[in-house]
RNA sequence: UCCUCAGUAGCUCAAUGGUAGAGCAUUCGGCUGUUAACCGAAGGGUUGUAGGUUCGAGUCCUACCUGAGGAGCCA
């Protein structure tokens, strides 16, 4: 038994002919009298096993034949290339150790047939085991890793410390919680956001960094997650088209375009979900819309140089109707102006004393943005709903599991 | 909070106001290359809840509960 070396399914291809063991779960079982095809998964992948009655001890065949879905097992045997097997590799099973057999009285609830979203998300703790969800979360991981790598390559390990002190080029990456009553396919009450902030930077710098980041991120997913994108049946040509420069339009222009296409929007109003879809419908790249009316943007946005009814904010809208994935812009650096805006918005000045302080001691033009991870992953994977992009989505009225 | 749609077997769904059904899952039987395997059989139901109309309600009406995704609001 110790002759069998434990391997992952993902590495099975490089262990052809060796005695190996795989520790995992039964994904599905097809049997035909004297031959059995168990599908096994171990978290790294899925492999088909094969077991012929005449070639193994009777007990091995019986144990395998009676396994139930998602029973935990350790199987031993040898792997080889096999055209007829899904995935191209197959394991000839020689013995099996049942760790736990799922009892037939309480079968695994998620069967290989159709289920509705309500049922699946009530069983999210099990749903995560399925192939599709697995692929989505691997893409999510790649997106997160790309974001971290992007900022590391921008500044460098040691340089990063210097920039933080000298230039304040930093980023924050973590969960954000919002309690708005938004029940849509684009909203979660907990979502993850990366927020770079740069000193001595303006709106143009934000647009440049945002564009570079998106191109870098989609490039990395294409490079490292081809298999997962195939599992998700994602049209990769849509992602291959993501290259700079992205189209850039002003809010003024966007309103004119929308009105020309029948939208009800008036200058001064924010985009609705359908407006975002109209704007991106005929674009294969994300588009950048900037210079929004100050009326519906937060108090800290820097006004435009040439007019004071718009501010230097920018939204990046993903193609294919996925909506806003980035929002950001240039912040007010003038202490007098910031105070004025705080008063105009009737905000408690005391609560912002530290924020105002930043403008007293060596203030510089600075800018930054926030990018929503789940919306990016939903777009890259081509998903119908954002809730599939996080292991345990927190939504309005949804806390379990 | 408002609007729209939906709730029938463990799951996905059928059923002109007239005997509640199929596929999958489970159990039993068959099958040596299956690809969400297939073939045969069995078990499985207070049709979301409470009222109402009717000779008769899964179906029509009212209220409520639960869910979905839109609006508002937000990212």
The DSSP helix count reads 13
Distance between the termini: 39 Å
CATH fold label of the largest domain: BirA Bifunctional Protein, domain 2
> Strand content of the residues, in percent?
25-35%
Percent of residues in helical segments? 25-40%
CATH superfamily annotation of the largest domain = Bira Bifunctional Protein, Domain 2
Q: Please report the first level of CATH classification, the CATH class of the largest domain.
A: Alpha Beta
Mean pLDDT: 87
Query: Numbering strands along the chain, what is their spatial order in the largest sheet?
Result: 7-8-13-12-11-10-9
Judged by helices, strands and strand pairing, the structural class is alpha+beta
Q: What's a quick, concise take on this entry?
A:
This protein is α+β, with helices and mostly antiparallel strands and 401 residues long.
Characterize the structure shown.
The chain is an alpha+beta fold and about 400 residues long. It folds into 2 domains: about 5-100, OB fold (Dihydrolipoamide Acetyltransferase, E2P), CATH 2.40.50; about 125-390, Bira Bifunctional Protein, Domain 2 (BirA Bifunctional Protein, domain 2, 2-Layer Sandwich), CATH 3.30.930.10. The chain contains 13 helices and 13 strands. The chain has helices spanning about 60-65, 115-120, 125, 130-155, 155-165, 205-225, 225-230, 235-240, 250-260, 275-280, 335-345, 355, 375-380, and strands spanning about 5, 20-30, 35-40, 45-50, 70-80, 90-100, 170-175, 190-200, 250, 285-295, 310-320, 325-330, 365-370. The strands form 2 sheets. The protein has a 7-stranded mixed sheet. Strands 2-3-4-6-5 form a 5-stranded mixed β-barrel. A hairpin with a 2-residue loop joins strand 2 (about 20-30) and strand 3. Helix 4 (about 130-155) crosses helix 6. The longest helix has 25 residues, at about 130-155. It is elongated. The chain starts with a strand and ends in a 20-residue tail after the last helix. The model is unreliable at about 155-165 (pLDDT under 50). The protein binds one RNA strand of 75 nucleotides through strand 2, strand 3, strand 4, helix 2 and strand 12.
């Amino acid at each position: 038994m110790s002759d069998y070396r434990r391997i992952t399914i993902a590495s099975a291809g490089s262990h052809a002919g060796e005695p190996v063991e795989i520790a995992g779960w039964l994904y599905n079982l097809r049997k035909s009298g004297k031959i059995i095809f168990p599908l096994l998964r171990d978290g790294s992948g899925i492999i088909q096993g094969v077991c012929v009655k005449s070639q193994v001890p009777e007990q091995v065949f019986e144990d395998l034949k009676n396994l139930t879905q998602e029973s935990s097992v350790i199987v031993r045997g040898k792997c080889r290339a096999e055209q007829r097997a899904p995935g191209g590799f197959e394991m000839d099973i020689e013995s099996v150790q049942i760790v736990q057999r799922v009892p037939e009285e309480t079968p695994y609830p998620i069967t290989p047939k159709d289920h509705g979203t309500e049922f699946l998300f009530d069983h999210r703790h099990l749903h995560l085991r399925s192939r599709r969800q697995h692929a989505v979360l691997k893409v999510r991981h790649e997106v997160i890793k790309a974001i971290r790598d992007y900022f590391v390559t921008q500044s460098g390990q040691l340089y990063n410390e210097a920039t933080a002190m000298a230039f304040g080029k930093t980023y924050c990456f973590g969960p954000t919680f919002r309690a708005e009553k938004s029940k849509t396919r684009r909203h979660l009450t907990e979502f993850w956001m990366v927020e770079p902030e740069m000193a001595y930077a303006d709106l143009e710098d934000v647009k440049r960094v945002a564009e570079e980041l998106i191109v870098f991120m989609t490039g990395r997913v294409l490079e490292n997650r081809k298999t997962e994108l195939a599992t998700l049946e994602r049209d990769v040509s849509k992602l291959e088209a993501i290259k700079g420069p992205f189209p850039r339009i002003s809010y003024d222009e966007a309103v004119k375009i929308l009105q020309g296409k029948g939208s009800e929007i008036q200058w001064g109003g924010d985009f609705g979900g359908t407006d975002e879809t109209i704007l991106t419908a005929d674009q294969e790249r994300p588009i950048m819309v900037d210079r929004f009316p100050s009326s519906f943007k937060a108090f800290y946005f820097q006004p435009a140089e040439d007019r004071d009814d718009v501010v230097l904010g920018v939204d990046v809208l993903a193609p294919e109707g996925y909506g806003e994935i980035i929002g950001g812009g240039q912040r007010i650096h003038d202490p007098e102006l910031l105070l004025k805006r705080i008063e105009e918005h009737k905000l408690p000045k005391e609560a912002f004393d530290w924020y105002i302080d930043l403008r007293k001691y060596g203030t510089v033009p600075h800018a930054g943005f926030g990018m929503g991870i789940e919306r990016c992953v939903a777009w890259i994977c081509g998903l119908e709903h954002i809730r599939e992009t996080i292991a345990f989505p927190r939504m309005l009225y949804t806390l379990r599991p």
